[in-house]
């Protein structure tokens, strides 16, 4: 019997060793195909993972990524060598001197990320190049000399999240995106592209397409000439929306802004109409939202900024101008919840009026989220939470908004008011963590003390202090329905083995932290797979690829000197969302780590 047990053990140890050695041999073979670079510690037998070979990323003893950026490499990329590294998921050759056609990386069908930026690759890319790379999420080919059409197969990747093709010589029309809701980062600028920009790209800013004189379409504000092949790029219009978040309000002093944390934390500039406002309605309102591919009760969804009633622009009316005097739109020193009126045709109203309005999600668009609010006096307005509005300072922004507010035309929707502010994400995160810690202390005997922590159950006071709601209901809930109603029951341990604990709350806290720092709506909130981003996998992949800073919401990082502190918060969020609860941070540990962050 001893021999019987020994043989399998020996086999396991032997095969693991061989696999690791196979990776090493493949790396040495790859090294020989390169010219230049500092790969001196790539020495066979020294242990690529154990000795941390330069640019080699591992999971255990297996090589999972190659980060060979900025190494002055040239020569060939030995694809046969790379094929021997079975666990390889990401390769970065950024800022080297490789030339010629794109390497045959398409043979590496398990790749999740390709970074070839800032080289001298040239020529066209075969149309079917990406056909078998269904797992690919990130493709960075920018700043090379690629030419010809953008491959159709690239735009049909089901998991594509990041696409950078700028600063090349791509030509022809842009293929439509087959899965536009997945793509969160795209840049096709400074090429030779032409024709109408397909509808599946409407969620992106004009800056993603600038430097292509032949392009036209609504994104660029440039009409396409029908004589010039306007083409069938009438692609699959991106289903009205794909991501979202949510909120509610009350009266007087400690009134809660009808803004759920989800919407607030996801942005820096809230504009247009009363931009920002809104939120948390009644329970039946949530069912309306759940019809969207966004999320059942999340208000901030992004919408094709089209909708109707009132696209607002800046001006800040003071907090007190809840619906009063004309002239309250001067605002620089008003409180954080002030509105600035720029058009008084519909009368005046303030943030409090807006907070009490019934809200309904409209959808999403390239510049932000939109929802319709009907106030108590019957006035219906469209509230749009704008993103990427950080080009101007507050004063210049106000000037532009007032100019827009003066426009008058029967076919133009003129903005009424705006709300402009930057938010302190760290304070919000600290408040949420402290509130959850208190709940864990008060309800320490409960299986899962909070049970339903998510952005739509976090409200903000007038001063943006977070207030946690919907907690400690687990003992009272119908056990047959509890797994459908409480978010903690979507934690990995419950999905796997129906186990639930206080660590499930920590998982939920991690989702909220990642949502705040990335500005992305988590698919974890949804009952189905439609909409949102698998924020846990996305963060884990980016950390493994050494692309952590790219995760931070640009609206938070813009002009910030605290990127390293934001990265710490991201890592805390990642630590909270470990799939194994035994490896997950504890509540007190989370509090301690957050208190060490100083943004």
From TrEMBL:
Domain Protein kinase: 242-599
Compositionally skewed regions (Basic and acidic residues) per UniProt: 300-319
Signal sequence segment: 1-22
Principal location listed in the UniProt entry: membrane
A Gene Ontology cellular-component term: membrane
Family that this chain belongs to: Belongs to the RLP family.
Name of this chain's protein: Protein kinase domain-containing protein
Organism: Gossypium anomalum
